[in-house]
Amino acid sequence: MKQLFNNRVPAARTRPSIRQVTIEYAVLILLGVVIVALAILSPSFFTFGNLVNILSQNAPLVIIAATGTFVIISGNFDLSTGAMYSLAGVLAASISMAFDTVWPALLAAPVIGILLGTFNGLVITRLRVHSFLATLASSMIFTTIAVLITGGSLITVTTEGFSALGRERIGGIFISVFVMIAVVAALWFVLRRSVFGRHVFAVGGNPEAAEMSGVRVIRVRVAVMALSGLAAGIAGAIGVSRIASGQPLAGTGMELQAIAAVILGGTSIYGGVGAVWRSVAGVFLIALIGNGFDLLSLNPQLKDLVTGFIILAAVGLAAADRVRR
Amino acid sequence: MSNSDADRLPVELSHISKRFGATQALDDVSVTIRPGQVHSIVGENGAGKSTLGKIIAGVYSPDDGDLLIDGDPVRHWNPGTAQTAGIAMIAQELALVPDLTVAENVYLGAERHRLGFLKRGLNERFAALDAEVGFGLNPRALVRDLRIADQQKTEILRSLARNANVIVMDEPTSSLTAHEMGQLETLMRSLSERGCSIIYVSHFLDSVLRVSDTVTVMRDGRHIMTVPAEDVGKRDLVTAMLGRELDQAFPDRTEAPEPGDVPLLKVSNLATDTGVKDMSFEVHRGEIVGLLGLVGSGRSECLRALIGVDAITGGTVEVKGFDRTGAPPHRMISEGVFLVPEDRHKDGLVLERSVRENIALSSLAARATSGIVRTSAEIGTARELADSLEIRPLDIERPVGQFSGGNQQKALLAKALAAKPDLVILDEPTRGVDVGAKRTIYDLISRLAADGYGVLLISSEHEEIMELAHRAYLVAGGRTIDHIEPSESTMENVLFRLFHVASGEEPAA
Fold first, then answer.
1. Distance from CA of A83 to the nearest CA of B (A)
2. pLDDT tens-digit readout, A249-281
3. Which of residues 100-139 of A touch B (CB under 8 A)?
4. In CATH, what is the architecture of B247-253+261-336+421-509?
5. B11-242 adopts what CATH topology?
6. For the complex shown, is ipTM > 0.90?
7. From B347, B361, B443, residue closest to A4, measured CB to CB
């Protein structure tokens, strides 16, 4: 037994293969290629105005996709982020109009998001409904509530200063971009360094093992869904502020764009693998493809075709790697 | 049934070898199955008898040697080609579709149809088949509603429906009552009279001796003997199954602790709906306690229930004198009880994540400041544990799924220790682990006891418990039937009693 603790061996560090590195950074490499291509092809791409616009336009989606990384790593899906985005925005708009306030109304949106997300989480864990189905159903419910609140049209917000969050700039950069950067940084830190982040990976990778290791799997699942709601609420506040009107269908389709970006970033839908920054890169890759079509005056109808093939290629590459192991 | 040519041997295994990782499951085994015979294969847990059955049925392919079917060596042997050749397997884990009816399952993949539309008469077809064997199953019942024994009968009917002339039965009796076992034996006899060969893999020696024409004894993946069943008795079989030299060195048994204090763990009359009926045992500090039992005796199920993964339907679990019945896993861990599960991949490890993260998973809270993991502390602990358990290669950042079985097991043990438990429960800690790693694990178990931990050990390699444990409980049919001191008992004695009880002869002591 003495030998048990004393024959030390220097720590080995196996280098990841070039292939693995390529896969891990595929989304960044593609993003780089698209940026370089656009910079060469279009003189108006590398202008301050264009870049700031791309950042600000995509701020809500980045926030949702970055959080969607957590959801997918934990082995869940959230198909209700678009609906939560709309509902939170509509409620913020009506609160602002009813009470003639700005910031309380905008801050209400994230709170509402947390409530909606927690509802999703409880349905998934208590009723044991798969998240895909639970959030598909709840997205319909949330959308209908939003439609009922607005009476089917939209709520135009005339409150003074309501658009600041979406339209004001500090040093030429939109406030929403700062919010986006803060949220992404926080999420990155939480996923990489917090106990909660580690538990998210474990729950997605192997819930049984996590449970047996003392992780409270149900709590983690609820928390992840609540976080997703929070993100949709923050994004909703930015969105409603920018257009200064509450629209019940404003977020329709965002949930799928966010999932596409997360998947493009290489996060595994089987759970347990993923990173926030890669989802963010995924959003911008899709955004830049769109921007490229605009700048180069290409047929915009082909935009989704190109995006679709790129996602297929990314997912196929990851699947091929999984089979090899 | 279709075996018209009586000279041809339906199945012949010639110098078959099979390896799983570091384990030599079969080593140069040659066995001949004759037409119309019930040929039993017996041996201890891990002797290779199931592997042998699975090779015949095409589930595994041999690494070496030839498999001859009807006299011809086969190539590309898989369950599909095996079925076409008239070989069916009834596995321990039943392969039925729960939402289809009995009749639909029996004819699944062999439906009669016209242009893809099912013909009527499925249930009539079934009735004819069922009348032949006399099971009396309701063809319209959903399989999900059946008892395990009836599900097994459904599987048997399925192989008969395909005109199988060789049927491999892998432990079919483990979930049957004595009456049902009798029915199955009658069926096996009547099948063999019709020219069908049965390969009967079983723990139940009485049943084996009643029904077999020929018995093959396996030990450590090797063929020991093949004899006519009428020439041997139960003792002969047990002796042949057992008679091995000790090929692993075990560390010296640590000194048994002083009795009398409050036990770390006290389980009383535990029952679950997963097969535990009445189990009672206790573990003290500094003590290694083993649960001895055959596969399917309810040992792992008992552990899952006591640490709070599965529901408890009766009895109590006390930790350090306090009632903790039904406490969830995170609670049991904070109480100092940690289970290292049997199935490393399913319950134990998050394969995609690094060794470091896996080791730290059980104890993150202890190494975090307001929710933020202190990476340096985490790396320190992980490296120290990985190093002391000799995890190779010593790269804690590598995904744990890329390590060998032995090293994965060490990572799992490291995770348990990182949680700083008082009681470590080890379920099959050396399964699929090479000899060198086994010794490391034995040393660790001894060391844990010497350091005052309590250890509850389950192993199908009974020798491990006999050599390491201070006390052991005999488990059969979900009950703890007796309590022994391994140092004063022999393997032969223990095995004889376990097999005896499994055959339902000896009432629970």
1. 31
2. 999 999 999 999 999 888 888 877 888 999 999
3. none
4. 3-Layer(aba) Sandwich (3.40)
5. Rossmann fold (3.40.50)
6. no
7. B443
**Least Cα separation, residue A213 to chain B (angstroms):** 5
Q: Could you report the per-residue pLDDT of A59-107, keeping only the tens digit for each?
A: 999 999 999 999 999 999 999 999 999 999 999 999 999 999 999 999 9
Spell A61-100 as b/e; 16+ CB within 10 A means b.
bbbbbbbbbbbbbbbbbbbbbbbbbbbbbbbbbbbbbeee
Closest residue, chain B, to A206 (C-alpha): B350
Residues from chain B that touch A206, judged by Cβ atoms under 8 A, are 346-351
For the entire predicted model, the pTM comes to 0.72
Residue type present at position B173: T
Specify which of A294-303, B77-86, B275-284 reaches the highest per-range mean pLDDT.
Answer: B275-284
Sequence-distant (6+) residues with CB within 8 A of A223 are A121, A196
Q: Is A322 on the interface with B (CB under 8 A)?
A: no
Structurally, chain A folds into a number of domains equal to 1
- Distances from the Cα of B452 to the Cαs of A61, A62, B106, in angstroms? 55, 53, 55
Residue A250 lies in a domain: yes
CA distance A70 to B335: 30
Task: Judge whether A19 lies within some domain.
Answer: no
Question: Could you tell me the residue ranges of all domains in chain B?
Answer: 11-242, 247-253+261-336+421-509, 351-420
Encode pLDDT of B457-476 as tens digits.
998 788 889 889 999 999 98
Three-class SS state of A74? coil
Between B176 and B248, the more confident residue is: B176
Mean pLDDT confidence for B195-224: 89
Q: Is residue A231 part of a domain?
A: yes
Give the CATH number of the domain where residue A163 resides.
1.10.3470
- Interface probe with B: pick from A213, A220, A227, A325, most Cβ of B within 10 Å: A213
To the nearest whole Å, the CA of A115 is away from the closest chain B CA by 23
- How far is it, in rounded angstroms, from Cα B491 to Cα B481? 16
A201–B contact, CB cutoff 8 A: yes
- Chain A residues with CB under 8 Å of B440 CB are 4
Domain that holds residue A183: 45-324
Nearest CA in chain B to A189: B372
